[in-house]
Design a protein that fits this description.
The complex is a heterodimer of chains A (540) and B (218).
Chain A: H1 24-28, H2 33-61, H3 72-91, H4 94-108, H5 116-135, H6 158-187, H7 200-232, H8 245-278, H9 286-299, H10 315-343, H11 352-375, H12 377-383, H13 387-417, E1 419-420, H14 423-449, H15 464-494, E2 496-497
Chain B: H1 21-53, H2 55-61, H3 67-92, H4 96-127, H5 135-143, H6 146-181, H7 191-216
Helix pairs in contact in B: 1-6, 1-7, 2-6, 3-4, 3-7, 4-6, 5-6, 6-7
The chains are: A mainly alpha (540), B mainly alpha (218).
Chain lengths: 540, 218
């Protein structure tokens, strides 16, 4: 391993860090994967706050029955934008394209990704897609829901066309990132970096990249057809022209269910890193965790029909999809058991990233188990399109993925900027996020099972207490998120200097100085041990 | 064939030089081709679904298609693929003049394909109102032969998306030709020509499937 360079306070760094170059152009045309990762994180973070604000607005509307201040159309627009922005601009790209871009090359011991120019192109496409999504608002904000179900979405016109185009471009960006990661992992590993020594975050990104490559093109063509449907009336999804709206659902979910794993697999990778390092213990079942990522990626492709149990598929298809959905829970459970076993008898440190992981484990367990309710055909008929589903996917996608994003921020912030965050305020933010999250979504499980349909603008008074508590929780999350983002910004701007390896990590990113040099390492790394061998050799 | 070597040295300048070699480039291109297959795969799925739903209409709609034009274009594309393979071979063996000639032929044949499609084939269909929203197209719908209308929607979408790929391919190969004429490619640097060739072959292969589905099956 390389000797990390120790830098005393006030002394100039003896090397050039990736942050040293100044000026807007040095960012916009950079080929450095670390800068590109930061650009992804910045764009995603802005959209995260905007999308969250939209949710806060319509949650306030729903605080009491009847009209408060939003028209039904405005409510529909807001939940559509909330979903579309947060899914396509935040949860899908943030960990792989943001943290992945920054850390994957360092973790495998490379100087950059395999195709740096392609990487720059993908962040540009990402920005263009985001701008197009916002521009579509000028042509009448869409109120189709982020799922764009036909035939309603097939007869809207230019606005749906532009949104489809935007998501198509975002998809291209996602594909190019996945392609880059796979080739990088295969071709650019440092000397001694065997497949068995890859950090589990890399394995998770590898599995994610496979899903990105195979699923995203299908979404691309589906939305292209939806866009053409709106401007040319080609009729594939329009019953009046002989088309089939359910065909759209099949094509859409063939991507969008695997997309759920695009959101969660990188998060799993973060959990594996943080759990092991902050428990000071070798990860339990390395190969099981690595292989279960691949298994989830592959089985995830054949479960999409469980979104369509009420759409009129054949009972045979219903039962098959139901069985396969139960099946995909197995590798997920394997991961949970391995993480818990990793913590068992470990020297756990209650740092902010570790607290987020505890929250993750609790929330993901609830999210995963309620998924099984929805996987059984009979129960699903009752729960389909209710708030139960809303609560379920927020538990898996928000509770798990977003909490992993915060864990990743606090875990890697010292490495990315060489600055330490304020532990106390990070924990206060965590507390508000965790309590607020449960307060928001547990009532939604209850009212969903009582029959409150999702996406409704008004409701009978019997559901009022649940909506009321849920909105209070939403405000708690908003406070927690603002505090957490504040802690991150404060650390970057005014944080205390962080040591090169504050957590005592053994993987390559902790063996290079913070912030990393332009070329990632001062000397070409040679790997002599695994990423979690804490017992055998202590890190610096 | 020359074995690709991974270069890890820094070549100065402000950014570290990353070189994954020809193997890496080919690997990347193959992954990209998988995504292309899935992109078209969605359309083939739509075709299969409507073909089984409206079999009789699909058979009837085939009569509006001009097999001869399709056959000419198939020959044009297959020939271009042959010259593409020759261009890669010529580059690898340092026959630079020959490589430029072959690349030029590929570009010309690609343009010929587009010429045939956009000056003979599509205008003829438009003249008959067979495009979505066209007179004959809407007539199919009013008669209850929605399958015929869907057939033409598919025809325009699938051959249109394919033509878009031909346009992109011709553009890429024109750039290759430009650099080949400047002598940039050789047995030491043939990766770009080879991966562009892979892309061109895929465009060809997709056409090989479109041809029977729209022109031959009756």
């Amino acid at each position: 391993m390389i000797e990390a360079t120790k830098v005393e306070k006030g002394e100039a760094r003896p090397y050039e860090t990736y942050l040293d170059k100044k000026g807007l152009m040095s960012w916009l045309f950079t080929l450095d994967h670390k800068r590109i990762g930061l650009m992804y994180l910045t764009i995603s973070m802005i959209f995260f706050l905007v999308g969250g604000l939209f949710a806060l607005i319509f949650r306030t509307e729903l605080m009491f029955p009847g009209k408060q201040f939003l028209s039904p159309y405005a409510h529909n627009v807001l939940f559509t934008l909330h979903g579309a922005l947060l899914i396509f601009m935040v949860i899908i790209p943030m960990i792989p394209a943001g943290f992945g871009n920054f850390f994957l090359p360092i973790m495998v011991g490379a100087k950059d990704v395999a195709f740096p120019r392609l990487n720059l192109m993908s962040v540009w496409l990402f920005a263009i897609g985001g701008i197009l999504l916002l521009l579509s608002l000028l042509f009448g904000p869409i109120d189709t829901g982020w799922t764009f179900y036909t035939p309603y979405s097939a007869s809207k016109g230019l606005n749906v066309f532009i949104v489809s185009l935007a998501v198509f471009i975002l998809g291209m960006s996602s594909i190019l990132t996945g392609l880059n990661f796979i080739v990088t992992t295969h071709k650019l590993r440092a000397k001694g970096m065997t497949w068995g020594r890859l950090p589990l975050f890399v394995w998770a990104l590898y599995a994610t990249s496979i899903v990105q490559l195979i699923a995203t093109p299908v979404l691309g063509i589906t939305l292209l057809l939806l866009g053409l449907e709106n401007i040319l009336k080609i009729g594939f999804f329009d019953p009046r022209l002989g088309g089939d709206p359910v065909l759209f659902q099949h094509l859409f979910w063939f991507y969008s269910h695997p997309a759920v794993y695009l959101m969660i697999l990188p998060a799993f990778g973060v959990v594996s890193e943080v759990v092991s390092i902050h428990s000071r213990k070798h990860i339990f079942g390395y190969w099981f965790i690595a292989a279960s990522s691949l298994a989830i990626a592959l089985i995830g492709f054949i479960v999409w029909g469980h979104h369509m149990f009420t759409a009129g598929m054949s009972p045979t298809a219903d039962i098959l999809f139901s069985f396969l959905t139960f099946f995909v829970a197995v590798p997920t459970a394997v991961k949970i058991f391995n993480w818990v076993a990793t913590m068992y008898k470990g020297k756990i440190r209650f740092t902010a990233p570790m607290l987020y992981i505890f929250a993750f484990l609790f929330i993901f367990l609830v999210g995963g188990l309620t998924g099984l309710f929805l996987a059984s055909v009979g129960t699903d008929i009752h729960l389909h399109d209710t708030y139960f589903v809303v609560a379920h996917f927020h538990f898996t996608m928000v509770g798990a993925a977003v909490f992993a994003i915060f864990a990743a921020f606090f875990h890697w912030l010292p490495k990315m900027f060489g600055k330490m965050y304020n532990e106390k305020w990070a924990k206060i933010g965590w507390f508000l996020n965790f309590v607020g999250f449960n307060l928001t979504f547990i009532p939604q499980f209850i009212m969903g099972s009582m029959g409150m349909p999702r996406r409704y603008w008004d409701y009978p008074v019997e559901f009022w207490p649940y909506h009321f508590v849920s909105t209070i929780g939403a405000f708690m999350i908003a406070t927690g998120v603002l505090i957490s983002v504040g802690v991150i910004l404060h650390a970057i701007l005014k944080g205390k200097k962080a040591p090169d390896n504050p957590w005592g990590g053994m993987s390559l990113e902790w063996q290079t100085p913070s912030p990393p040099p332009t070329e990632n390492f001062l000397k070409e790394p040679v790997v002599t041990h695994g990423p979690y061998d804490f017992g055998k050799k202590e890190g610096h | 064939m020359e074995k690709a070597v991974l270069e890890r040295e820094t070549h100065g300048g402000h950014h570290p030089h990353v070189d994954v070699g020809v193997d890496g480039m080919k690997f990347g291109m193959w992954l990209f081709l998988i995504t292309e297959l899935l992109l078209f795969g969605g359309l083939f799925t739509v075709y299969a679904a409507f073909h089984s739903l409206y079999l009789a209409d699909f058979k009837a709609a085939h009569h509006y298609i001009n097999v001869n034009i399709g056959f000419v274009n198939t020959l044009v594309l297959i020939t271009s693929s042959f010259f593409m393979a020759m261009a890669v071979w010529a580059t690898q063996t340092d026959r630079k003049r020959l490589a430029s000639i072959f690349l030029g032929l590929v570009v010309l044949l690609g343009l010929a394909f587009l010429f045939v499609k956009f000056t003979f084939e599509w205008p003829e269909k438009f003249a008959h109102g067979l495009h979505p929203g066209g007179k004959e197209f809407m007539h199919f719908v009013q008669e209850g032969h929605v399958g015929k209308a869907l057939f033409f929607s598919l025809y325009f979408t699938m051959t249109g998306l394919h033509a878009l790929h031909v346009i992109v391919g011709v553009g890429i190969l024109a750039v290759m030709l430009f650099f080949a004429l400047k002598g940039r490619y050789s047995s030491r640097n043939y990766g770009p020509v080879e991966v562009a060739g892979l892309y061109w072959h895929l465009v060809d292969v997709i056409w090989i499937y479109l041809f029977p589905l729209f022109y031959l099956i009756k």
